[in-house]
């Protein structure tokens, strides 16, 4: 099937080469980072995770959200998702690969990565995160490839793939739960130390992932003969609306607990993020954009007339995506480190090399996505 | 017997997987032998701890003997940029070392005084719990150790430590060390690994006391065995009121402060 990715229109190759061009500068800077160290980034003793881990956290959610098409289609036989399911699965694959790349570029000693497997450590959440992410990648490659291959031959998928699909459903939930536990299990970082962290992660995942899927489906529909179907997009829009409403509700719960209890350490990070703390306001504009976009998205997606209008749906989906990208990326990760354990404030701003390396990983992810979608779409066009 | 290619690949794959899985399982059960040997302490009846007498420490506010001695002994580089600093033992204001104990009307001397802070060698260390490679672990005598050759530089331990005791080598630390300063008896580090105070485990194993304790001319640092009821640390702890940093987090820090 892979040969389908090797032939294509001018437009396809233009896309492939532009993504490759976006990939290159960061690739160069990564080698500089390898030789000089993470001093190339804006991270510090106090804010020891930054843009890379923020992207990692966000994309675990995007990956997990494939379950929002897989579950209705395979468990409830929801026919409207018949065509879009492969796009969901093939979105999960590059999303997990991006997660792995973001972890890799964040490591101080990346060539020691095998130590994670040479010295398996069941008490470390990071060990489990590695295990579940690799498993999830494998599951989605197997499921996507097998079902698409069967479709190409015009036969039903082999029987053994059904149980694999069923496993992938709780597995998707597990990757995001375990990723939330990375944060929710450490003492002394009050923004993270919350029992609803995993619930928040799942809500924001089921908002951000399907919203990206809506955007991607619209792009695919515009440029190819493959149409995932109007009903599928509308159902996804409802999923996004509910999930985003839950996500915003969960954030408000955090705000209530922190401010009504009045415990200073619980308030500080939230104050820093949304209003600034002791004159430090680096993330405030970003967080406010996130809030505004969340409200815009909720209005557009909850009100039926705008949700059914695909122009507004596109704006709503993009708003959800950007809003959660800010809040669950930089907001969550950097906010957790401010103030530091001494209640002092060191702010964080990513450097140009750091941003270019991040762009590189995005480009690599979208390149893989383009290739996988090209294969899926070409086969669909033929059938 | 005819074995088709597909079948053969399937079986080879299964065999491969079971070998990998089996050895991982074996390691999980048996533990890592090298690490197990490192974990062996001279006696299980040892639990090292430290008491910092801030009254004595206050006698010479400008003194940095303990820090200088530590940094020299452990090849800790001096890096001017506070964002990239490596710290093993340093000074903080009372309000920063004990943010939850601060109040407006607190004793003037406490307000002014700089507190000595270092790794607390917790009895329930979150850094050890989160490390994905066991590059940081707790010895049976309580010292929280760091294997800088195994560390992958993920910095999860830095996120987990509620005391800010861990430093990451953002760049090559050797470049910040003068050739003639280097102590050949202690390794220098590479970029990309985390480090912290090791309570001079290498000296303790030879029956010596940590170098910071030895360097303090006021004898403000007291090092000793908590498991020994007749030790000086036990006598001080039972006789006078001490405080610890953030005990409410359940980390059981083993550095005590006499204020």
Give an overview in words:
The complex is a heterodimer of chains A (383) and B (259). Chain A has helices spanning 10-36, 51-64, 67-75, 85-106, 115-118, 125-153, 161-184, 197-223, 230-261, 264-274, 284-302, 304-308, 310-336, 352-382. Chain A has 383 residues and is mainly α. Chain A has one domain (2-382): Formate dehydrogenase/DMSO reductase domain (Formate dehydrogenase/DMSO reductase fold, Up-down Bundle), CATH 1.20.1630.10. Chain A is globular, with a radius of gyration of 21 Å. The two termini of chain A are 13 Å apart. Chain B has a single domain, classed as Alpha-Beta Plaits, CATH 3.30.70. Helix content of chain B is 32%, strand content 14%. Chain B is built from 11 helices and 10 strands. In chain B, strand 4 (136-138) and strand 5 (144-146) form a beta hairpin. Chain B starts with a helix and ends with a strand. In chain B, 40% of the residues are buried. Classes of the chains: A mainly alpha (383), B alpha+beta (259).
Supply the CATH class of chain B.
Answer: Alpha Beta
Proportion of beta-strand residues of chain A: under 5%
> How many strand elements of chain B?
10
Query: Which percent bin holds the helix content of chain B?
Result: 25-40%
Structure summary, number of beta strands of chain A: 0
Domain unit count of chain B: 1
Number of helices of chain B: 11
Low-confidence stretches of chain B: 33-42
Main β-sheet, spatial strand arrangement of chain B: 8-1-10-9
Major sheet details of chain B:
4 strands, mixed
Largest sheet of chain A: none
Quaternary structure type = heterodimer
Question: Any idea of the CATH topology of chain A?
Answer: Formate dehydrogenase/DMSO reductase fold
User: Any idea what the radius of gyration of chain A is?
Assistant: 21 Å
CATH homologous superfamily placement of chain A: Formate dehydrogenase/DMSO reductase domain
Give the ordered list of helices and strands of chain A: HHHHHHHHHHHHHH
């Amino acid at each position: 099937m892979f040969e389908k990715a090797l032939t294509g229109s001018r437009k396809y190759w233009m896309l492939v080469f532009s993504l490759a061009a976006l990939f290159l500068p960061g690739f160069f800077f990564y080698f500089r980072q390898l030789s000089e160290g993470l001093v190339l980034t804006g991270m510090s003793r106090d804010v020891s995770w930054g843009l890379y881990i923020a992207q990692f956290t966000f994309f675990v959610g995007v990956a997990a959200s494939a379950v929002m098409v897989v579950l209705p289609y395979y468990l409830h036989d929801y026919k409207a998702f018949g065509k879009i399911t492969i796009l969901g699965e093939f979105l999960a694959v590059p999303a997990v690969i991006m997660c792995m790349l973001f972890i890799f570029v964040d490591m101080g000693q990346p060539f020691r990565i095998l130590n994670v497997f040479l010295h398996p450590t069941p008490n470390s959440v990071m060990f489990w995160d590695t295990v579940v992410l690799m498993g999830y990648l494998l599951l989605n490659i197997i499921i996507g490839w097998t079902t698409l291959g069967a479709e190409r031959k015009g036969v039903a998928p082999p029987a053994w793939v059904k149980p694999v699909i069923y496993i992938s459903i709780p597995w998707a939930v597990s990757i995001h739960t375990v990723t939330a536990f990375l944060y929710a299990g450490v003492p002394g970082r009050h923004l993270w130390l919350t029992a609803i962290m995993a619930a928040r992660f799942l809500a924001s995942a089921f908002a951000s992932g399907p919203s990206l899927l809506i955007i991607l489906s619209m792009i695919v529909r515009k440029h190819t003969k493959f149409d995932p179907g109007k009903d599928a997009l509308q159902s996804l829009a409802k999923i996004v609306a509910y999930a985003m409403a839950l996500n915003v509700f969960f954030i408000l719960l955090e705000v209530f607990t922190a401010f009504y209890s009045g415990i200073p350490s619980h308030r500080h990070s939230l104050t820093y993020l949304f209003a600034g703390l002791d004159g430090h306001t680096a993330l405030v504009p970003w967080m406010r954009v996130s809030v505004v976009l969340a409200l815009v998205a909720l209005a557009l997606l909850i009100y039926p007339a705008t949700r059914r209008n695909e122009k507004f749906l596109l704006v709503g989906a993009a708003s959800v995506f950007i809003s959660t990208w800010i809040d669950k990326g930089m907001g969550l990760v950097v906010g957790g480190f401010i103030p530091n354990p001494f209640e002092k404030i060191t702010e964080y701003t990513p450097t140009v090399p750091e941003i270019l390396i991040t762009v590189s990983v995005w480009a690599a992810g979208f390149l893989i996505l383009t290739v996988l979608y090209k294969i899926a779409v070409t086969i669909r066009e033929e059938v | 017997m005819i074995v088709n290619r597909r079948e053969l690949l399937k079986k080879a794959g299964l065999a491969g997987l079971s070998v990998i899985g089996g050895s991982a399982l074996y390691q999980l059960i048996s533990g890592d032998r090298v690490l197990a040997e490192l974990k062996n302490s001279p006696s299980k009846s040892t639990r090292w701890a430290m008491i910092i007498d801030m009254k004595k420490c206050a006698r010479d506010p400008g003194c940095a003997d303990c820090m200088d001695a530590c940094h020299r002994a452990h090849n800790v580089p001096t890096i001017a940029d506070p964002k990239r600093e490596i710290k093993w033992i340093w000074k903080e204001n009372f309000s920063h070392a004990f943010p939850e104990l601060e109040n407006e009307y607190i004793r003037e001397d406490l307000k002014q005084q700089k507190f000595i802070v270092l790794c607390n060698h917790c009895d329930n260390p979150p850094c050890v719990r989160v490390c994905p490679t066991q590059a940081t672990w707790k010895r049976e005598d309580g010292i929280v150790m760091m294997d800088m050759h195994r560390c992958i530089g993920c910095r999860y331990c830095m996120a987990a430590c509620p005391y800010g005791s861990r430093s990451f080598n953002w760049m090559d630390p050797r470049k910040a060390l003068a050739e003639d300063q280097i102590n050949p008896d202690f390794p220098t580090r590479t970029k990309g690994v985390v480090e912290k105070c090791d309570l001079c485990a290498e000296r303790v194993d030879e029956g010596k006391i940590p170098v910071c304790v030895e360097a303090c001319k006021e004898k403000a640092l007291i090092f000793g065995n908590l498991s020994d009821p007749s030790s000086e640390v036990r006598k001080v702890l039972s006789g006078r009121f001490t405080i610890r940093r953030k005990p409410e987090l359940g980390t059981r820090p083993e550095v005590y402060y006499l204020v």
